[in-house]
Amino acid sequence: MLCTRNRALHCREDWLWSGRPVEPAAGMLANQLMTDFIATNRKHWDAVTPGHVASEFYDVESFKQGRDTIDPVEAELVGDVSGRTLLHLQCHFGMDTMSWTRRGAVATGVDFSEVAIEAAKSLAASLNLDTRFKVGDVLGLDLNEQFDVVFSSHGVLGWLPELRSWGQTIANHLKPGGRFVLIDGHPVLWIFDDERTDGEMRLRYDYFSREALAFEETGSYADPDGPATNTLERLHPIEDVLGALMFAGLTITGFREYDQIAWQAMPHMEQDGDGWWRLPAGIPRIPLMFSVGATR
User: Fold this and answer.
1) What string of H, E and C letters represents the secondary structure of 98-122?
2) At 231, phi and psi to the nearest 5?
3) Would the pLDDT of 6 be above 90?
4) pTM summary value
5) What does the domain layout of the chain look like in residue ranges?
6) What is the third-level CATH fold of 7-64+75-256?
7) Is 56 exposed, middle or buried (0-12, 13-18, 19+ CB in 10 A)?
8) Per DSSP, what are the bridge partners of residue 7?
9) First and final CA of the chain: distance in angstroms?
10) Structure confidence by residue, pLDDT tens digits, 163-194
């Protein structure tokens, strides 16, 4: 489930919560859940970021030499960004944000991890790029400005306790006529057991439960030998993703599903010649990734 591996403990009962999507003012339990989600996951990303910067997975050295980290799906959906203002939500340490700058955007990256943002600022300065980076929680972000494009991709939604505030943040930061693009792992993928090594696809999680799941992580997708951390994660059904955007007043302009994903989400996945991860031949295909486009 999500961009994580090596779970030592699943679904700790003291963190299990279920019900319809949490609203921003739904009472003490919901508020505590949201606070704990953000604080717990921020600690995780603060801890793993140094290992990510140094990892082969992110390969910062080749990025310094000019490698573009924007994949073909992102490039197609976002389009030409020359001279456009672009807000990248949940940007981690900013390589994609800086790639949008290299493509001509006036780019700003936001992440809730101060460690990640400091790493992003340091990398941008070393490359003489004018990409802006700011520390911020996407559920309560207010930059007091609006952008032509708001963008977020790959392993982002599961770290959030609710999506209504997320959708409102997007709407608040889009100019009239501005475009939002999201690309992420498909929630159907997250209902399967991601620890099986026998190649079988077995159901493990309930698609509609909307439970908050607590995990103890050893390492991460980019740094398997990294520190042990705790995370709180949540499977958001597609109806909640689209519903949050529509509730914020945005118009859905596109929705697509893909049989590929940007990282090895299951141990038995195979990487193709273009760098995408897919289920092996012989296993019936399921949606592994999806994209949404919306306008204000």
Assistant:
1) HHHHHCCCEEEEEECCHHHHHHHHH
2) -135, 155
3) no
4) 0.90
5) 7-64+75-256
6) Rossmann fold (3.40.50)
7) exposed
8) 217
9) 31
10) 999 999 999 999 999 999 999 999 999 999 98
